[in-house]
Amino acid sequence: MELKPHRWQQTPEPITEFASERTTDIVVLGAGIAGVIATHSAAEAGAEIICVEKFGSFTAHGTDICGVNSKVHERYSIHIDPIKAARLIYSWSQQQSNYALIRTYTERSGEALNRYVDLMEEAGYTVKINDEMTARTDWDTLDDRYQMFRSPHLFEVPEGSSLPTTTWNSAYLVRTALAAAEKLGARFLFNTEAVQLVREGGRVTAVIVKDGEGFHRINARKGIIVATGGITDNEEMLECFCPIALRADRNDNFPKGGNMGDGLVMGKWIGAAFSRVYPAPVIHPVSFTVLAPGFNSSWLMVNRDGRRFCNETAYEPCITNARMNAPGNVAWAIWDSHFEENFKRQEPAKYARITESVPEAVERAVQEGDYLKADTLEELAEKMGVPAGNLISTVERYNRLVEAGDDTDFGVPERFLSAVKDGPFYAGTISAWMLSVPYGLHVDANSQVCDDDDEPIEGLFAVGNAQGDFFANAYPVTLPGSNHGRSVCFGRLVGQALANDQLIDGTPL
Ligand SMILES: Cc1cc2nc3c(=O)[nH]c(=O)nc-3n(C[C@H](O)[C@H](O)[C@H](O)COP(=O)(O)OP(=O)(O)OC[C@H]3O[C@@H](n4cnc5c(N)ncnc54)[C@H](O)[C@@H]3O)c2cc1C
After folding, report:
1. What pLDDT sits at residue 370?
2. Whose CA is nearest to atom 29 of ligand 1?
3. Per-residue pLDDT tens for 23-55?
4. How much distance in Å is there from the Cα of 160 to the middle of ligand 1?
């Protein structure tokens, strides 16, 4: 049987008839956080720039934005060791990713974000360190496996302000940077889709875009920055490059169809290589309540056979990775009536800040059907549909390990072990919600796109989730907010450098 080639393996005939042709210094493809920051940074450095976006507006989701050792960190007296953070992120990738990129990120993302802290504060927003969500206040004291720094920044609309509010805080930054870029003369062309890159004499010189009037050619004197995001919405690409992502419960990315890997496909057609590493999908066990299993605290987890099967320390991607590879793609968290004191012991800083009653939140989740509750383990097993005998022996074994304070089976640190002894008993399924699958073009240390021989392609750069080789295997929450953080960092560095006819390491172009 002959296999049908994938879209990226079928290079189309070049489009040569255009409704219009124009020339500018830099063209950015995609108005997400990376593209908008690149556009603003290049415009601020004096370049003439056009950003094309296939939808009618910019894209922004999420809350946390990392910038290592920013001026906000200084205000909080937080210092993150950039060498250690880089080493940990690199080790999550099993040394497959590009260490130089990661090191640039841990050394220069603070400086990049500082510009936007100023811009946002001038516009009337406040910024704080968000160590209440993914990042936990005291997880930077844990050993290397679980170390998580207090890195995420959160932009907010202060009370009483007339600034419009939205659900996703990162939209404040993207909207403000976009408006600032327009003031500097940058042009955003919405409902305009990049469809082909033009490579002439080895160099990428133009992009062909499509809008309601047909095709247009935009020539770039200095270069083109691909910022089209990852492959989250492209099932064919997920099947090829990140099949585990197809086992998530749902895809929460939006707008739907935004991340079809267009930048990769266009790049491949002109000789660029895809990222060398396995993608690190961002799939979180999203919480229903403050106690959500797996998200905010670490409870005994069992599979559909009622057996313990993984280390339950609530380091997000590990929990969902284990769930999605468990038989039947199902996992349960189990806890007993001492959940409040166990939660408090596991996460004292978080507990201290919680304003709602923990027992009430759990009871509400039981009423709403999110958690199961039973007086005995036998009854709980029946409700869960797992063999009662297995569940009981799993719990007995687990409780012996908790009592000994030494998890010789999976190595969960003592702080995160919580016995399951006194009823009523509770169970909740571990959810796996896909936020994004970063996967991009193979780049060098300057974020310049490379071909299969690792040679940089003149005139072509990639930032944000379209930048390959940064995360690999599992998304590290070493520096929470790093999806956004590296988008801001490389968006700014590449935008500024190109405007100044340089690479980000200062080499003249
Ligand atoms: C619900 C949710 C919560 C999240 N929370 C966080 C968080 O708290 N912290 C964090 O760090 N990350 C978070 N993330 C992930 C983060 O938002 C993404 O990693 C980030 O948006 C990537 O930015 P980007 O600019 O590379 O890509 P995107 O934001 O996806 O932007 C790419 C843009 O390119 C456009 N585009 C694509 N193809 C073309 C084309 N051919 N022509 C023109 N335009 C094109 C798209 O329409 C889109 O506007 C979250 C994601 C989701 C969905």
Report:
1. 87
2. 32
3. 999 999 999 999 999 999 999 999 999 999 999
4. 30
Q: Name residue 494's amino acid.
A: V
Burial 256-268 (b: 16+ CB within 10 A, else e): eebbbbbbbbbbb
**35 CA from centroid of ligand 1 (Å):** 10
Q: What is the pLDDT of residue 350?
A: 78
Choose which CATH entry (3.90.25.10, 3.40.50.300, 3.90.700.10, 3.40.640.10) describes domain 286-431.
3.90.700.10
- 32 CA to centre of ligand 1 in angstroms: 5
**3-state secondary structure at position 273:** coil
Question: What is the model's pLDDT at position 133?
Answer: 65
Homologous superfamily of 11-285+436-509: FAD/NAD(P)-binding domain (3.50.50.60)
Report how far ligand 1's centroid is from the alpha carbon of 260 (Å).
Answer: 11
The stretch 162-187 carries a mean pLDDT of 97
CB distance 467 to ligand 1 below 6 Å: no
Whether residue 132 is predicted with pLDDT greater than 80 in this model: the reply is no
pLDDT at 291: 53
With beta carbons less than 8 A apart as the criterion, state whether 323 and 430 touch.
Answer: yes
Task: For 48-75, write each residue's pLDDT tens digit.
Answer: 999 999 999 999 999 999 999 999 999 9
The answer to whether residue 271 scores a pLDDT higher than 80 is: yes
CATH 3.90.700.10: which residues of the chain?
A: 286-431
Q: Which atom of ligand 1 is nearest to the CA of 192?
A: 43
Ligand 1 atom with least separation from CA of 58: 49
Per-state percent for the chain, helix, strand, coil, to nearest 5: 35, 20, 45
Tell me where in the chain the CATH 3.50.50.60 domain(s) lie: 11-285+436-509
CB-count burial class (<10 Å; 0-12, 13-18, 19+) for 363: middle
For residue 287, what pLDDT is reported? 54
> Is any ligand 1 atom within 6 A of the Cβ of residue 229?
yes
Residue range 389-404: mean pLDDT, rounded: 98
Plot region of 481 (φ>0 → left; ψ -120 to 50 → alpha; else → beta): left
Q: Which of 61, 105, 155 to mutate to test the pocket of ligand 1 (most atoms within 8 A of CB)?
A: 61
- pLDDT score of 3: 74
Ligand 1 touching residue 52 (CB < 6 A): yes
3-state DSSP assignment of residue 346: helix
Three-class DSSP category at 104: helix
Both tokens assigned to 407 = 């998890």
What's the pLDDT tens digit per position in 316-370?
A: 788 899 999 999 999 999 999 999 999 889 888 778 877 778 888 889 889 989 8
Ligand 1 contacts CB of residue 48 (under 6 A): no
Mean residue pLDDT across the chain: 94
Ligand 1 proximity of 227 Cβ (cutoff 6 Å):
yes
